[in-house]
Amino acid sequence: MPDVDPPAGMAIPPRVRDALLVVLAMGAGAIDAITLTVLGVFTAAITGNLVLVGLALGQGDGAQALRAGAGFGCFALGLVLAERLLGRDLPPEGTLRARARPVVVVVALAQAAFAAGWLVLGGDPGAPERIVLIAVAAIAMGAQTEAVRTWHAPGISTTYVTGTLTLLVNELLEHAGTRRDRLRRGGVIGGVVAGATMSALLLDHARSVAPLLPLALTMIVALVLQAARRRRAA
Question: Does some domain include residue 4?
Answer without folding.
Answer: no
